[in-house]
Amino acid sequence: MLLFTSSPVTVTLSPKNQFPCNALTLHNRVPPPAPPCSPPCLFAKPVSRNPFTCALAYSPTHKHVYPDPIPQFAESETQKFETELFRKLSEDVNEFGDKLNEVVAVCSRIFSEFLHKEYGGPGTLLVEPFTDMMVALRKKKLPGAALAARASLLWAQNYVDKDWEVWNSKLK
């Protein structure tokens, strides 16, 4: 039996028998007064220690396998990334000054390594390469580490998966 209360009406889920057929019972009961608080308080508490469980179908032998990285795609995407990152960051000359090329080179190297070793299509874009970019830029004491890493991440989120789909649709 599982009981939820948040108003004068109590909702109780209880099994009528041992089969998977469950019943929903409504009881009209006034709950105990709630302790004073500024926002409205809602309380939900289980009455029994044996709540319903839902067994989801799971097969330990069924795994989703992502494709291996495609080196030609990684090269092409790295070139696009480098061009677009340079264009985006060059809008903020005051932040990067004469270090812009070095900042873009560090970000491009890390992005390229990720595409060559780990990216296997939609669902495999990770945040780690972008945090690695920020760490590497800070370690080298280059300006605009956070700005460059954020711009890189936003570009990747907007284009990498779409470009992968286009790339693979041309292969068919």
Task: Give the biggest beta sheet.
Answer: 3 strands, antiparallel
Beta-strand portion reads: 5-15%
Helix count from the secondary structure assignment: 5
Distance between the termini: 55 Å
Q: How do the SSEs run, as a string of H and E? A: EEEHHHHH
How many β-strand stretches? Answer: 3
The secondary-structure class comes to mainly alpha
Strand order across the largest sheet: 1-2-3
The pLDDT mean sits at: 78
| Share of helix, binned | 40-55%
pLDDT < 50 stretches: 1-7, 9-14, 19-27, 51-56
Number of domains: 2
Alpha-carbon Rg, integer: 27 Å
Q: Choose one word for the global shape.
A: globular
Protein name: Protein PLASTID REDOX INSENSITIVE 2
Organism: Psophocarpus tetragonolobus
GO biological process, one term: regulation of gene expression
InterPro entries: PRIN2
